[in-house]
Amino acid sequence: MAEESRLPPVVLLHGCGGSPEQTFLASGWPQAFTASGREVFAPRLPGHGHDSVSHDPVDYADLAAALLPRLPQGPVDLVGFSLGAKIALDLAVRWPARVRRMVLGGIGDNAFAPETVGETAASALEHGAGPDTPPGVRAFLATWDPALNDPLAVAAILRRPPNPLLDEAGVRAIRCPAAVVNGADDFVMTMGTRLFAALGAEPLVLPGVGHFDLPRQPQFRDAAVRFLGVTG
Q1: What is the pLDDT of residue 5?
Q2: Is pLDDT above 80 for 111?
Q3: pLDDT digit string, tens, across residues 63-99
Q4: Is the pLDDT of residue 2 over 50?
Q5: Cis peptide before 203, with omega less than 30 degrees from 0?
Q6: Spatial separation of the C-alpha atoms in residues 90 and 105, rounded to whole Å
């Protein structure tokens, strides 16, 4: 236990429209880390939940900066899924002393682009799916739990000014070790390899796994526990 006690807290960052409960708690992520003596934090991303959330996209113009004051002091280890992975990258680029190691899931070259279906997904949250709603947005709606999030706030997040603003030079400058886990059936796996090359990380690809079911996979969780359990 003495070795594990030197390791920093683990912070679990869920995706857009998700929650700590759905993404991590239901799949045993906190227990997997606490079993090895790690302290775990699973904050809600800005605009998530129902407590005083804004419906103005401008209020989500810098998600990483808004989240930073809610992280534990000192260095942390990060696990980020989807939007949480983008924010983890932004934290590592802009505040390198705060991130020791990180594991990213559900991310690829979409890290370098704005939300490509943001308006479509925002409209679907407000008005429901229509005959032309893309399958990816329908899959997003299928994961939606209105008891956990305000749909107008999440719609505002999807319409936010583009951020994080990541580029390959910034990602190449990241100093902390990083690992990536993706599903083979996730749309991000078709977007290219620029992110992986910039990180210097070959993704672990899980066969038959899509985007929204990635956090439920024990292989993702176990790979994160192993990678973040390394000292030094």
Answers
A1: 53
A2: yes
A3: 999 999 999 999 999 999 999 999 999 999 999 999 9
A4: no
A5: no
A6: 15
The C-alpha atoms of residue 27 and residue 225 are separated, in whole angstroms, by 13
What is the rounded distance in angstroms from the CA atom of residue 61 to the CA atom of residue 159? 10
For 63, the enclosing helix (H) or strand (E) is helix 63-67
Domains and CATH numbers, the chain: 2-228 (3.40.50.1820)
How far CA 198 is from CA of 8, 73, 82, 175, 190, in Å, comes to 25, 28, 18, 12, 17
Which of 33, 7, 1 minimizes the C-alpha distance to 224? Answer: 33
pLDDT tens by residue, 113-134 = 888 889 999 999 999 999 999 9
Structure tokens at 47: 């605009």
> Token pair of 5, please?
């006690």
**Torsion angle, alpha carbons of 38, 87, 113, 16, to 10:** 90
- Burial (CB count <10 Å: 0-12, 13-18, 19+), residue 162: exposed
Q: How far apart are CA 64 and CA 219, in angstroms?
A: 27
Distance in angstroms (rounded) separating the CA atoms of residues 23 and 124: 21
Nearest CA-CA partner of 38 in 101, 105, 107: 101
